Amino acid sequence: MERRQIVELWREPGTASGVAGTASGVLITLVHAEGSTYRRPGARLLTAAMGSQADARGLYAGTISGGCLESEVVRRARWMVRAGAVVERYSMAFDDTAEIPFGLGCGGTVDLLFEPAGAPEAEALFQAMSDSLAGVESIVVSFLPGGGRGLRRVVYSADGRVVFASEGLDAKKIDCARALEPGGEYEGRYVERLFRPQRLVILGAGDDAKPLAAMASSLGWSVLVADGRAQLARAERFPHAEQVLVLDDPDQLQIEPQDAVVLMTHSYEQDRTLLSGLLASPRGPRYLGMLGSRHRSSLLVSEAAAMTGRSVSACCETVFAPVGLDLGGDGPEAIALAIVAEVQAFRHGRLSVSRKLTPGEVAEQLERGGSSRYLQAQCALGAAE
Q1: Beta pairing, strands 109-116 & 222-227
Q2: With contact defined as beta carbons under 8 Å apart, do 25 and 6 qualify?
Q3: For residue 209, how many C-alpha atoms fall within 13 Å in the half-sphere facing its CB?
């Protein structure tokens, strides 16, 4: 969400106008952190240009702390870049005698890069951020100012092609920078990969999908809602979704490996068809969740396994069913929170406990409640053969 807000402010008339030290807005990036800090490297804040409509409203976009630094850096930002980009260190440890500002008791230290928003380097970064929101990823290497040198930057496409390079950077330095790993610690250089936002595909446009779309959007995710029922799949019902589709053919979805998909059509037949198609696809999503009781989910998983020729064990390994972390609570908002929390934990490698079915539980649920008509028909067909 922060990147989207910064790009929106950048696009406002006048935000990136002017030159260093005059009317330009200022982009502030956290490029290094030590100790306990609220934000990590890559956090950004953009101030509006002086005299712009956004500036008149006192606007800035993004954050670089938990609120303890923002007012100070916004107040000083234009003064900081009067001679060009600069890196400033802020200590948030409570120490009245420290020479480094700011001493607020948070315990950590951060290095902030201040750069005029109208400079070519900032414009190239804004464009890369904007492109990432549209799904075009890139790698950005910033040679930090210091020692008499100004800020220089190289932007590479995902395949290594140079999209932008600061004036004066020689070919050798550009080639060497290409080999740097995003997130690595390099003295005087900050390297980052601008990923596309997480895409969440919600299959089902019922009322309970509305808070899920809203919560995912608030995290900056790209949301697609699809349903075979045209009366439900309407854009006005999902103002937070980037796309709302009437689903005639599952191939319309164009699922990518980095996507997260949640099945919640409340239609057994639709869920079975969609689940089977997703499991059979070689480009299936990295996260696949399914709403429903454990018994219903067991039936669907077992049928999807039979339809795709996969084992129940393999399907259980792939499908998060019932979907969502066990956070407690009831109602659409609580369910949405549980789903978003599980996807967030999974994509960051922090998921320690989930409610996923096991093969043994699927067998137990089928034995307890009886198999579905589909499985009974499959068994009868096998016996006849």
Answers
A1: unpaired
A2: no
A3: 29
The closest alpha carbon to 216, from 323, 330, 343, belongs to 343
Sorted by where each starts, the structural domains of the chain and their CATH numbers stand as 2-194 (no CATH), 199-384 (3.40.50.720)
- φ, ψ of residue 346 to 5 degrees: the values are -65, -45
- How far is C-alpha 233 from the geometric centre of its chain's CA atoms? 24
Instruction: Report the residue count for the chain.
Output: 385
DSSP 295-355: HHHHHHHHHHHHHHT--HHHHHHHEESS-S------SHHHHHHHHHHHHHHHHTT------
Contacts of 331 (CB under 8 A, 6+ apart): none
Residue where the block lists tokens 């967030």: 344
State how beta strands 287-290 and 260-263 pair.
parallel
In whole angstroms, give the CA distance from residue 160 to residue 163.
9
Concatenating the DSSP letter of every residue in 29-89 gives: EEEEEESS-SS-TT-EEEEPPTTSHHHHTT-EEE-SSSSSSHHHHHHHHHHHTTTS-EEEE
Residues of 305-337 as b/e, b for ≥16 C-beta within 10 angstroms?
A: bbbbebebeebbebbbbbbbbeeeeeeeeebbb
Q: Is 358 helix (H, G, I), strand (E, B) or coil?
A: coil
**Could you tell me the two tokens for 262?**
């949640």
Q: Return d(Cα 9, Cα 127) in angstroms, integer.
A: 13
- Tens of pLDDT along the chain (385 residues) come to 788 889 888 887 665 544 333 457 899 999 998 887 778 899 999 998 766 666 656 688 888 887 778 888 888 889 899 899 999 998 866 555 555 444 445 568 899 999 999 899 999 999 999 999 988 999 999 999 988 899 999 999 999 899 999 998 989 889 888 888 888 778 899 999 999 999 999 999 999 999 999 999 999 899 999 999 999 999 999 999 999 999 988 778 889 899 999 999 999 999 999 999 999 888 889 999 999 999 999 999 999 999 999 999 999 989 999 999 989 888 999 999 999 999 999 998 888 777 788 888 888 888 776 666 555 555 544 444 4
Q: CA 321 to CA 127: how far, in whole Å? A: 39
* CA separation for the pair 58, 52 (Å, rounded): 10
Instruction: Answer yes or no: are the C-beta atoms of 10 and 16 closer than 8 Å.
Output: yes
